[in-house]
Design goal:
Chain A has five helices and 14 strands. Strand 12 of chain A pairs antiparallel with strand 7 of chain B, so a sheet runs across the interface.
């Protein structure tokens, strides 16, 4: 079993309730990597037999640290309509909610469509050797290839904090919504780029929007995705961070938006 | 009392539970204007005596239509830390959750800060006469002044769907987080601009991030805000829409990101 599938594995108990446990491969500085937690919450909806349609939006609140070991995940369909569904998902450890969030799923149908955001002109992943050289376990669970705005640059104060990178699971794994939700949190904090060094940070809430159907994501495969991240403003202890994830063929798969606490 | 304060008025019942009712001034095509519903949910947190800090993130799921009349609003502090708090808020009508969401509040402290998004060069609101001429009640509760991408333009297919507008409450009202959360939903759907006509739409989920403290928002006053909205992609029944709200002095107050259902 792939390390990612081990990390998100939910053992069903009763209606909507599952048991899960942390795995060493997705550990971050304190507790599990946030992307893995997003994936676990989304997975609780994906495996629920009452689910209608594909995931379209996921919002996750990182309310408290998750300790190593077991926890419960509870997915509740708050409201079910004919072709859409609104969920609440809670991660409970030692009797307290540590992480929680909401998910929206809906049946996607053929409609008129158009892309406004354009796939940038970038060098192919095979040509990039600039990786991620940090010791945090979760960073080894991905293959990072930085095109610009990598973690080893000089301070960018006064300049935009954009990062462009190729990324895929390491070892490679066929993309699905759950792994994509995790990849959406894989951009290191923009403030590290702005300041040129690490400052204490923590994402407090992250929202991911999916722009493709199950059928479309099934076609992406296990290759690198193009990730683009930036931020709009930093002040009074919080900054925002947004990302785009594209297939190599230029399909916008997901966007994400988060608020991050910092101390500086 | 200002019509907005009437619309968001919550009558406290027991711990975290309030009663509210729809008002004619903020009615939309079907049920209340979504921004007013966001404001009501956020207001339930703002008036809660257990609240810690300023609102930083609000996510609202529009799960079912809200009928004219009374409803209950329930705000629950899911997790309270030393200087941050994570909330769940539910709007219940006829015993069912129609709208629900999550709120993050936190104490904002002096830190290093920087803006990346730049305030655009735009004509002053006094020079703009291009308003909103639709009959929906809620549009009369705002003064719209369109700089570009107004609702009366020709189809934009293949071009970006950006709107820039000045907006304030009508009659004027001193800005606060609750009214700002409502204004974040005031941009008409980007697909109307792309197609050049109205198609059936409905926002399913909207996230608002606040970038200012209580002290900063208190200084904005009752003048026009600059609003900028755009979208990244449209397909298979859903599109995304993002906005920025700026004070006239060039302070980025809030950003919002939503997913919108459409039939076309």
């Amino acid at each position: 079993m792939h390390i990612f599938d081990q990390a998100i594995q939910l053992i069903k108990q009763s209606d909507g309730l599952s048991v899960c446990k942390t795995t060493p491969e997705y550990q971050n500085m304190v507790g599990p990597y946030g992307g893995a937690l997003c994936a676990i919450l989304l997975n609780a909806v994906m495996i629920n037999e009452k689910r209608i349609g594909d995931p379209i939006s996921v919002t996750v609140h990182f309310a408290a640290p998750v300790a190593e070991g077991e926890f419960e995940v509870k997915a509740t369909a708050v409201r079910t309509n004919r072709s859409t569904q609104h969920w609440l998902v809670e991660l409970i450890q030692s009797g307290e909610v540590a992480v929680y969030g909401t998910v929206f799923t809906g049946i996607r149908r053929e409609t008129w469509g158009d892309g406004e955001s354009r796939f940038p002109v970038v060098p192919a992943p095979e040509t990039i050797t600039h990786g991620f050289h940090v010791t945090l376990p979760w960073t080894k669970a991905y293959d990072f290839k930085f095109i610009e705005g990598g973690p080893q640059v000089s301070p960018l104060e006064g300049k935009p904090s954009q990062t462009r990178m190729w990324i895929r699971d390491e070892p490679p794994r066929k993309l699905d919504f759950v792994s994509l939700s995790s990849i959406c949190d894989s951009f290191f904090p923009r403030i590290f780029l702005k300041r040129g060094y690490r400052v204490p940070i923590g994402t407090v809430v992250l929202t991911t929007h999916f722009h493709v159907s199950q059928e479309q994501i099934d076609q992406v495969g296990d290759g690198h995705l193009l990730g683009v991240a930036d931020a709009k403003t930093y002040g009074k202890g919080y900054f925002d961070q947004s990302s785009e994830l594209w297939s190599k063929e230029g399909m916008l798969l997901a966007t994400s938006h988060q608020m991050v606490y910092y101390k500086e």
